[in-house]
Amino acid sequence: MTVDKKFQGHIIICGLGATAVQIIEKLESYLEKKTVGKDTIIGEVILRDYIVIESSSEAIEKMRSKWQNIHYLIGDATDDDVLEQANISDAYGIFPVLSSEKDNLYITMAARQLNPRIRIVARTADIFNIGKKLFKGGANSVVSPNFIGGLRIVSEIARHHVTDFLDEMLRDKNTQLKMAEVVISPDSVLCGLSLKEARLPEQCGLMIIAMKKRGDKFYTYNPSAAARIENADTVVVLGYTDQIAELRRQAQGEGYKKSGVFIVE
Predict the structure, then answer these.
(1) Residues 108 and 122: beta-carbon distance below 8 Å
(2) Residues near 244 by beta carbon (within 8 Å), at least 6 away in sequence
(3) CATH 3.30.70.1450, the chain: domain bounds
(4) Sequence ranges of the chain with CATH classification 3.40.50.720
(5) Which residues pair with 50 in a beta bridge?
């Protein structure tokens, strides 16, 4: 279907190349989902709507033969008017994943200008040169399939048990064990407590992997029990989906059902 409603908090996917198709495949793999109130969730994560922008009508028709109810716009994702038709000003995130490095850079810069709050995850083949320009243009993250592929190949030799574990946890939709990030809201019951006082392993059964203080660039791994949990801090945990859901309820307080962070697990 075309964009027939006013989207808010959604994801925009630019193009229908190999990377974009993989993104859609991943999103559509979560068809077996459950509901909390009016929220559709993947495990503990609220699923966001997404829109595909593609200039080729033929590619759109091919896509619709597989995913009939998908939202799309036929147009050029480097055109600001098309981005505005996709309601980029209210979007949560955007994937500039076209084959052209120049186009991805332009989309990144335009998206940041049109929506200063948007999360931008861009694709590039050259993580060291073009990647730097994408970051300067406003990207939050830059992914190189070649670079990631190389790391994966080495990991299969150097630490294949770790790789197998992460694959099972992150890719198998039937596996209940997940790694998740939880942001602390100001009305959370956890706000102001130390990790020792919060007793998250005892209360929720979770393993605390890392913490990131508001405004910090880096994570603190295996944080000490004295570490204080404060507003807008991020806690990275490992546990089962029901345990993570309980932590998210405590972390978000009354705003839990409205908060929803998009996470590709």
Answers:
(1) yes
(2) 43, 44, 178, 180, 182, 204, 206, 237
(3) 176-259
(4) 11-143
(5) 11
For 176-259, which CATH superfamily applies? Regulator of K+ conductance, C-terminal domain (3.30.70.1450)
Its CATH class, for the domain covering 11-143, is alpha beta
In order of 3, 20, 51, the CA distances from 12 in angstroms are 12, 10, 5
pTM for this one? Answer: 0.73
Between 177 and 193, the higher pLDDT residue: 193
H/E stretch holding 229 reads: none
CB atoms within 10 A of CB 143: 17
The token pair that represents 254 in the structure block: 């009354």
Q: Which is nearest to 72 in space by CA: 107, 26, 24, 135?
A: 24
Task: Identify whether the C-beta of residue 106 lies closer than 8 Å to the C-beta of residue 23.
Answer: no
Band (41; pLDDT cuts 50, 70, 90): very low
139: left (phi over 0), alpha (psi -120 to 50) or beta: beta
Q: For position 263, what pLDDT does the model report?
A: 38
